[in-house]
Structures
1.
Amino acid sequence: MTKPRVRVPRTASKGEVMEIKTMISHPMETGYRRDDHGRPIPRHIIHTFTCTYNGEQVFRADWHPAVAANPYLAFYTVATESGNLRFEWIDDTGTVYATEAEITVV
Amino acid sequence: MTSFTTHDVPRLSRRTLLRRLGTAGVLVALWPASAWTTPEAVQQAIRQCIGDRTPQPDGMTLRLPPLAETGNSVPLTVAVDSAMTSDDHVLRIHVFVEGNPEPVAATYHLGVRAGKAEISTQIRLARSQTVLALAEMHDGSVRSATADIVVTLGACIEEWWNN
């Protein structure tokens, strides 16, 4: 169900600045809500997002409850070499959601 | 005497109304005093991020719609004027939401490899407020940008709690 989606160019020229768009389905439960019986609903959010490019971290985000459900994030990175971009989302339960994209840099 | 027509308003039975009022009362009674962040907490969070450095209010933009019907998912873009080279780049961008229960919404870690100092996301806003973004630059300077947003009534507490 929690299927991450990323949009990365398949090919890019060396040195090009690429826009990367990411989205993942996740409730991002704030911890400030109560259920129908008045009991607090425990916090359950993704607190860390990382993007690594051929093993080196190029972008990271620390999230708090003010990030909307099904977090969307667009950012940029420089196309340096062909290889692989790995995206990871880590939530409060310790679950790591990951996806990868291959890129050819010419 | 003005007469009100209610034919286009969804029917709310007396029982449902009383139940909802009861629930609202319970929620208000249970509302913790610390449900909202305080100006002191915001200042403290800002100090934790940038220490005693003074932000300069230029060189970056924060884009938010001026009005949001609900605060559940508000598009936000932060862009910093920077060449993103080894001697001029952004290290971190922080977003603060003074009108929410917690002062910090997110921190983004950039660097030379970002290439362009811009991020777009969607945030939750519990009520109308001024959103603040700070950018920590490579040379130690800090920039700031703010945007005011009106979050329509009913979108804040109602949506925050029930949606």
2.
Amino acid sequence: MPPFLGGGDMIKRVYLHEFKANDLPHKFEAGTPAIAEAVGFGAAVDYLSAVGMDAIHAHEQEIIAYALERLEEVPGVKVYGPSAEQKGGVAAFSLDAAHPHDVAQVLDRYGIAVRAGHHCAMPLHDRFNLPATSRASFYLYNTPDEVDQLIEGLYKVKKMFG
Amino acid sequence: MDDLYRELILDHYKHPRNRGTLDPHDFSYEDENPLCGDKIRIDVRLDENQRVKEVAFLGKGCAISQASASMLTETIVGKTLDEIKQIGRDDILDMLGGISLGPTRIKCALLSLKVLKAGAYGLAGEHYREDE
């Protein structure tokens, strides 16, 4: 397979009319390597290791279970996907009162960020006959209080579009 | 988003004007935003002077896309095809109450204009290019 990009460590020798590519893997690693990104990655690894991956997982599980519980209480909300223990901290849902874009727009006004659209899963949305869904994602830096704020926000959306 | 704009948009969303289809029609065009599922169809009938006599739209989707369609059908009555071709993005944003929209929602707001123009250009035997 010929190299895709040229220059840097992927070179073994350059002549006037041709060049020899370096051996693998260098042949496919042209240019300056992603040094800053590697250092950043190391910092991220250190940070997460300090918190503890098990602790993070436990927190994620707790938050998503709480979020699903509260979401299912809201009249007109339907949550899609498996139960809390079977997934990470995401909840895709629809609200009958408003389109996902409008839900996201109103929630944004209250400082809450959700994703609206197909979440790179168009065929899945076709399967459920949904034009799109809203999706809330929770991670180690989210709190149960923020789940409550999301729910309050959804009631505000219902009120506005109802 | 200012309250005034919200009321205007919500009003048109909940009580859309000119909903329906026209038969016969001089042109009818339909399109959607695949990324969010907004869909609009616009039917237009012209009078003997080639001005918009009647217009109707069908659609489903977010408040901005549907309200935009509703408002657009109201504004084009009496316009010529050339006048329709002149309507631009800023006109639509003004029509929506001068709101400022991010790049995603702009697509919602402009869908009905895209449908209308595609229909208008199509009637004249021309092809409408969105980046004009």
3.
Amino acid sequence: MISIKNLMKRYDKLIALDNVSFVFPESKVTAIMGENGAGKTTLLKICAGILPFEQGEVKVDEYSIINDSISARKRIGYLPEMPYMYDRLTGREFLFYIASLRSLKDAESEINMYAELLRIDHFMDHELGTYSKGMKQKISLIAAIMHNPNNLLLDEPVWGLDPLTSRTLQEFVKRRKGTTIIATHSPQLVESTADNVYILTHGRVKLSSSVSDVLEKYGSVEEAYFKVEGVNIA
Amino acid sequence: MLETYNTVLVDSVRNLIKNARESPILYFWFGFMLLFSILSISVLSVVIIWTEAEINIMDVFFTIFFLFMMKSSVDFYRYFIKSSQVSYALSTPVSQRKTTFEIFLVVFWVQLGLWALFSGIYTLILSASGVYMGHPELYVIFTLGVILSTILGSTVALHFFSIHRLRLIPIGIFLLCLWFFNNIFSIIMIILASVVFLFWSLRNSLDSFQYAKRKERIKDIELVGIRNVKAAIINKETTIIWRDNLLSSFIFSSVSTGVFIGYLTAFGDETVIPEVLRTITERLSPLVYAFLGTYIVIMYTAVFPSLNLFLAEEKTMWLLRLMPISNKKIIKSKVSSLTLSFIASIPYVAFFVAFAGLKYLLFSLWLLVFSYLMAVLISVPIGAKYVGKKSDILVLYSVAMLLFIILGITMSLISLFDLQSIEIGFFYIISILIEIGFLFGSLHLSSNIITLYSKKQKISS
């Protein structure tokens, strides 16, 4: 579970997150939607412990991201929007490096299993600098899930993935236990995987609801998004 | 009309102004180092002129020529080959050759701007020293050399980073022609021929755009494994150093500097040394040689890798921050990986002592260890502070200046001692111990620098 209280984040004068509070419950998939610059990626980065913030409290399974940072980070898996990695390492070397930093002594079988599942196994010994965006996304995804984290943060997870891998990922997310947060622009992804949805606008929560309630009230997540954002599609 | 040229130039200038405003101290040191370099060259020139030593002007020409050629290659690589922004301009209906030519123009004006700045300051200093500077024909030849080096440097980058490396052959022919026929008429003819070659090269510029060589590393599979945190970080750092061929260049620089500086120490006043060099070499003491040699070696084997421990993490810092390990462990592990580059710098001492004499062994070893530790303790926190924010050249130059001053003061202190005395031994030991204390302080500071949260936040939460 991840709980956030009165979170405030600024980039110079721009307020990215304006005193927001969330509770992302256990065994639920929560989607964060919002226009570009609404604060979705910022929120995920703060939860992952890789971005500082000015004010508020973030707890990961009751561990403060500030004071118990190492315990909190042990419980997190994070897939960034842009998966930057070390260009001169191979996919296999990179994943073993991450497994070493996470002290996962028996990660080899997990790595091989996920590499095969995501059909990246044939490229595991190529340097990452030669990978396409989708291939990097797959390696980054394995790095995010190989330690079986209780809290999984996915930023635009299907962006750049082929349809089959995208489907595999969605099935994986639906089946997994623990807390999952997905930042996305895709209403289809929200409908197919999420239990709850938040819509952010200018760093504030405009809508907080279960996906089933949204579907009942608005007919589709896309329709709800347009209504909340005040967009009138004729 | 020149949209790409204007955009790239405006973007570069704005970035420069923004960075200078954000980090004035860093830019102050950087500017100081540049001025100091020009001043040093000017002083050397004045000494050479006053002693009326014979100088081959073409040696100076080729030195400037190759420096600008390297700079042009690096700039063209940065502005075109590895620039993802250029893909927008390349995908418009504007001719791709025109777009690439506009990028070449940016590189061209940057080199000419630098040449005008440096040569202007140099001329001013020499004029102020009373040296007669009325040689316009030399200035024209040198400027033509800069133009030619920019053209050839850009074409080197274009063809080196492509699968058609045989296209580099004409550049070799141009350089040979320049070497054998180095008068103003020949230089103009070579420039004209290289312009034709440049335009032909620009037609094939897409061969090198975003060039990446697909490398499979099947042989290294056996070395892949799960290690403890410290070993994993050290292994990753050394793997990258190895694959970038840095280790061999560290050893090469340390050996060649040891041989060169050692030779000058032992035979600096011999007639086999060119007169122009001898006017300087015969005036320097072995201590000064040792200082200069060590400074050159540690700039390459200590400052550069220490700064890059963090500067190279520009876009991957998120990975380290995400891992459940303390900042202290990250810093200590990364610094431990410098052991390899320290070992690579030891041949310098061996070669220097082989020429200068065994009596300098202890002193040279101390100087190397002292300078290396000093370089690390300055570079690591600075690299950590500017991760993802500043170019490595900028930070490297700033640290170089700072280090030069500190090591210069230390050398002044050393000159007060007799190198054969017992007191010097105490000085060596105490100075290293004090430095180790400072090193731990520096590592602590570095781990605080990469901490995301303020102390106030830690207390309040």
4.
Amino acid sequence: MEKLTKNKNIASLIFGIILALIFLFPIYLLVVNSLKTPRDVFLNTLGFPEEYMFANFVRAWDMMDFGKVFFNSIFLCVGSISLLIISSVMAAWVLVRTKTILSSIIFIMFIAAMVIPFQSVMLPLVGFMSAIGLLNTRFGLMFMYLGFGSSLSIFLYHGFIKSIPTSLEEAAIIDGCSKPLVLWLIVFPLLKPITFTVVILNLIWIWNDYLLPSLVISAKDLRTIPLSMFFFFGQYTKQWHLAMAALTLAIVPVIVFFIMAQKQIIRGITQGAIK
Amino acid sequence: MRKQAENRILFWIYLAPALIAFTLTVVIPFLIGFYYSLTDWNAISSAFSFLGFDNFIRAFTDEGLRNSFFHSIQYTILSVILINAVGLSLAILVSKPFKGSNLLRGAFFVPNMIGGLILGFLWQYVFVKAFPAIADIFFLGFLGVDWIGDKQYALFALVIVSTWQFAGYAMVIYIAALQSIPKSMIEAADMEGASGLNKFVYITLPMIVPAFTINIFLTLTNAFKQFDTNLSLTNGGPHKSTELLALHIYNEAFGYNDFGYGQAQAVLFFILISIVAIIQVRLTKKREVEL
């Protein structure tokens, strides 16, 4: 009996490995072809490169201005997510701790808005944002991510803060801590697990988002990775070796991040979905 | 008394940043959008006139919109079924206690981290170059079809990419549900001599029903909102045969600068998504009562 289950597990493992190889095959193709000459891409699509062309990366990097674009994406994510966390924690905390009808109505409004698909607001959004001068600026884009992201972030924080007993906060106030500071000194440190979830979910969203920046940003030097990838691909469709190098550049940071934080990412995703 | 006033001030100050950003980016555009959908607003002139429900009547007789609606339905049904079937199978496979199962989970999940736009570009290469090459070597003729250029296959190409992207996500949620099944239940069934199939049907399936609900609605709304991969893989082609709702609305609005009419379609799109969400809330609420 014991041996039987063991054999079964080995069979599952082998089957799993084969499946995983099939799953990762597109990524394998991406990497090997990014290192080939155009002729090699054409004649030897599936195999390893005959000659390793690291020059493809140099060219793709220059053509996309990858250094700048990468910085833009990082800057945008760090800025937007910091803004999101600070404002959502504050909003969620006062919404949980203030028991009035108005407070519940505001909370329900935030939650109900999660249903609205982006396409339903994009036209008036662009018109309205240009009227108040937030188009084509870094801050404007961060501000919009704050607006669109606050619903989910507040929802997640709200659920977590509800489970924290008020006695902790009351004790701190008796000890002389001012009420606004109680949030940052007492409550916020307790929110670490959910903060991680909020960071991960927003990071995956903002890092990969194409549509919003494409509508908001027109200046070339403010482009994010997905935006510049879109323009790059439009120009060099048939030059697969360069396109593959550019795509590899775009995907590597994500995969490195995933390998570094796999456990937390999967936990965060699960919590975000189940809530 | 003073304390109450202080609390009220704190309430508004702490709420302000999120509420202001939310109001300016979501609430106001959403409300303006309703109004615009009743007008002939366009990009060219600043003046526009009120049309009443004309835009909506036009939308219901619009063949392009109807076609994209049916593409979306087709795409949604296929991708919801495939993503969940593959996701659940993967979850069952990797929840077995063997070494390296974490590594496998990672491999299945990683496509989900990459954005839909970039995935579409990557898969263009897979469909255009790699599949024909594999078809030649292994004599798998069906792989060599014109996946992206042929009307017959292009929607399936989109479904394949979405399955590759989201199956790992569904898997993660199914794993969480599978792990919540108490070991004692399985052991008790083993003692009674239950077969593997019986254990699956009578213990595993009922225990993962909540995960089913979560996953089906997540994949359902994602499928209706699909935009990025649609844009980068097929751009709606060939001949608009893969143009899904979100992309259709985008193309119509920016292609013809007919913003009032585009906004009317966007409002209908919102109503469709809301109906799905309301059904979801109903179903989950009901289940909580039963439990």
